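dumping the sequnces here before i forget
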Amino acid sequence: MGDPTEVEGAASEPAEDLLTQLVAHLREHRERLRDQWMSRIREAGLLQAMTPQEMGAETTSVYDNYVEVLETGSVEALQRYARDLSERIIPRGVETHEVVGIVLLLRDVLARSLFEKYQRDFALLNRILDAYEPAANRIANTVAVSFVEERERIIRKQQDAIRELSTPVLPVRERLLILPIIGVLDSERAGQLTEQLLGAIRTHRAKVVVVDVTGSPEVDQTVANHLVQTVEASRLMGASVIITGLSPEIARTLVRIGVDLSKMNTIGDLQGGIEEAERLLGYRVTRRNDVADGP
Amino acid sequence: MQVLGLASSLVDDTVLDGSRHHRRTSGTPVDGTAVADLEPMLRRIVVARLGDHPAAEDLVQETLVRVLDARDRIEPRMLEPYAIATVRNVMATMWRAEGREERNRHRAHDPGVPDPADAHLLEEEERLALRTAVGRLDRDERAALVAHDVDGQDTRSLAEEAGSTAGAVAARLSRTRARLRVEYLLALEQVEPPTERCRSVLLAVSAADRRRQRELGAAQHLLECEDCGRLSVPLLRRAPARDDETRVAISADPDIVTARRAARAVAARAGLTGADLTLVATAVSEVARNIVRFAVQGEVVIELLDGPRPGVRIVARDAGPGIADLEQAQRDGYSTCAGLGLGLPGARRLMDDFDIVSTPGQGTTVSMTKWIPRRT
Amino acid sequence: MNDGPALVSILRQGDTLVASVHTALDDSEMVRFQEDLVRQIGEHRARGVIIDVAALDVLDSFGSRTLRTIAEMARLRGALTVIVGIQPAVAYAMVRLGTGPGEVPTALDLEEGLAHLARARDPGGGGSVR
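..and the predicted 3d for all of it:
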């Protein structure tokens, strides 16, 4: 049996040296390689949303970061940079495939230059590429992941803002909330709405809620079931719900398809609903039994 | 004792090299240089005592393996004294073993050696188990493992020799290591797997091959088969911790609470928010309770999903009596245990997807998914 | 109560018992809670019981059923039970699950719960207990 450590040592020791060599080469030819990369980006029709100046600045910056990550192995720096980059370019409509595309192009441009430099020494070339490829792939991966995450984060933020606007819960007076439903309710939005309403009951310590569906063109079974659930859940939190704006036709349809309207306190219009709410709250009516049990 | 005879017949280079693989495969980074430097000294010691005894080289290697094994526990300056003490022990063990074999040759049953040092005995058992395990590998598997892990030959050149690719060789090596781990455990526990499936299941677990595990229904098997359930523990612990999957063993009331807490945590990481988290936790509570009530023992696995849509999947499985009439069990009001009729239909209403498979006498698996709302 | 105090506290206020659940309970703990509470209702001859579940992040079918059972047993001993503090998400999950406290009255919080009990005993009187 030979001495295993010798063989191992010979294969693994120079790996760092190789990387140092490689990084030195990429630094030395920075300008030329970056230009090659940019022209490849242009040929591929990527990043057309950017002006040449912007592109010059961004590619230089990505290049330097790329080499730095190769050198230090620190992906954190690259992640940070990738996030910053994403934040700036996403609003300009740069797509995920473009970001991944330019990083892959850079990987290939650099690999090609390594090939040209070391092609005479095939063994060395192999070792250089062995050191380079995994690092380069890891970078491409990191950039792509950061970009996608950032994109999702931004989109989610925007959608949250839009949703907030579309279902306002209005605290009309102490312990009374009004929830006007405007527009089409799908199952998802109905769920959101219920959640929002239940949260508002807690924050405002509401005892009565008027849900006005006058502004909702259709109330189908899904929406009706959500309404029933909302009424029930509100009751569990100690609040009564009054539904207003349900036209007689819709009410009949709901009964026909099996929605249990008996659990709901329905009143024709919003005005009547508010009056009923105030009665429940004891503002005008002298008798106050039945207050908390609700409908 | 059969193992004893087997072990001494296996004292050859390959077997001892095999124990080295084991070190390598157990996840410690190999920094053997300092240990390997001890080799000439150790050889001098052994040769001084044994001359050119056929086992001399084996003992040197054996010692190196043990020192490698212990190097996390010893300080660098203690390395040499430790190695010298070890090589003496190793030689003593061999003498004892030879003497013992001689003495006991006439007995059909070896009652075991009354060794005062239990630790030593244990060590011996582990070593025997490892030898047996290495002995159960194919000749090719063993050869590849030796070439790569001991002689330091890289996968590329192995591939060239075999007319294959480096990737294929690496994959094969890792399968071999997985197999070695399984065989080692079987030998150590002296278990002969009770069913034909056992070995494949353990192998899939050892290789952390999730696709294969699913194909084999490994999780279900581990619940059903006592031997595999026990043997899989070290194999599962060894697998890289997955932060996208959480496993909660269910056997008693408190586990229900643990499972729903875990589910809430994973669901939050998946990106679910607000009431959805509570829906998931409640559904988990229901299915976990079904396990405690009807099956006594099982597990709940909570998994992050990437595609086709991001979400969280809960799999609750048990090896209980199973449910004879699934349709009935999913109707409201069904119950075989005071007032629990809401469990399954309720959980179904809380989740987006719900699926149940049950075989009477074998167990029940509930899979249910909650998707992250697509916000448009 | 054996190891109860850490998980649940039961306080007496006049002829009302206020039971607060402080942390998630498993099924056996829930059953123990039920036994303790029902026993104390008898011992103190309580007329009203308030169960505060604000600390619970899950009320599944078993939890709901236990609450219903407590209320029913309290009723048989002449006490009225109000459940208070159900969290918004928990309320929603209970409705989706199809369980709930049934006919047991619910209120937003302790204050509302006490008000409810006062009204229930004296329908014509004022709304405040204090």
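Residues 4-121 of chain C form a domain with the Transcription Regulator spoIIAA fold (CATH 3.30.750.24).
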